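Note to self: keep these together.
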Amino acid sequence: MATQPEDPNTTDIATAADTPRPLPWPVRWLLLGFAVLCLAMGVIGVIVPGLPTTVFILMAAWAAARSSPRLYRWLWNHRLFGPLLRNWAQGGKVSRRAKWSAAVFMAASAAVLWMGATRTWVAVAASACMACVLIWLWRRPEP
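Structure:
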């Protein structure tokens, strides 16, 4: 069955339907505030062991993409956060260095937790959660 050539003057219905409508300004401002908060938490996570950087940067990029193209471009081109975002955009890839860093910091956090835990179940639950996250993380593809 032959198809007719497309008329350049017609609008593709699927493309028009997929184009997002601009968000109302209160929603944009809330998303921008959320992006800035997540970015701040991600920056703090670079310094503080046990606080995840990757998750906060991914959430910041998601919110910035919907509220502030300027912030999103800055994150995408950032020296530290850009590669993380680009790897994730290419199929959820996580670098081996990030995997090892997460493993070391989670092990250190678990050790501190076990040494200072007054309730054993808290240490067991937190360690089990960290183990599940590490299993998931090490199963992610690498760039």
